[in-house]
Write the structure tokens for this entry.
Amino acid sequence: MEKRSKAVGVRYYAVFGKITGKNKESIEISNEATLNELLESLVNKYGEEFGDKLFGENNGEVRNTVNIFLNSERANEDLNKGGCRTTAGMIPSPYTKLL
């Protein structure tokens, strides 16, 4: 059976916008993808600097200075959460505006 995928809108703020060179893009992910899998794919796409600003040396945990929003709800604590329905965003603190 073929895996189905969907497009998820990702928004980048502050340093993440500088690293990616854009403020938003559409990423194709599998329907079953978790937020963590989306973040890992972004690190693979944008490299070490992106990963360092996102995770640092926190063993896969998002830095406490970065806010991750999934479908307009803060999602830092549950990176294995599925359901990337529409948007995800990375906002370095103190930029805590919801998407």
User: Anything to note?
Assistant: DSSP finds three helices and five strands in the chain. The chain has one domain: 5-92. The mean pLDDT is 77. The two ends are 35 Å apart (CA to CA).
